[in-house]
UniProtKB/TrEMBL annotation:
A Pfam family matched in the record: STAS_2
Cited InterPro entries: MlaB-like_STAS, STAS_dom, STAS_dom_sf
Organism of origin: Sphingomonas citri
Occurrences of domain STAS (ranges): 11-103
Coiled-coil residues: none
The name this protein goes by in its record: STAS domain-containing protein
Amino acid sequence: MTTAIVAERGFSLATIDRLAAALREALARGDSIQLDLTHVAAPDLALLQLVEAARRQASRDGVDVALAAPAGAGLARALERAGFIKGFDATDHDFWFHGDPPR
């Protein structure tokens, strides 16, 4: 089963708990996850860390996690500012950008 999780437009540190809970629940069920971050207006380090933690847990559990759409410009800038892109391997690049160059 695949669970679609949509991050809310007003995502912030104050609302991260809802996204974290949805990810935890889907992982606990062993569901594949399709994560939609397209509506997040101001992605921050907390969001990036949450997604990366979920990816690592999913990998350990044998669960697939995918973004519904490649990272847009705002998300790509956040990844660059936080230093994530420098350490990306091919799997990370495919996850965040679906094989396309960062926008």
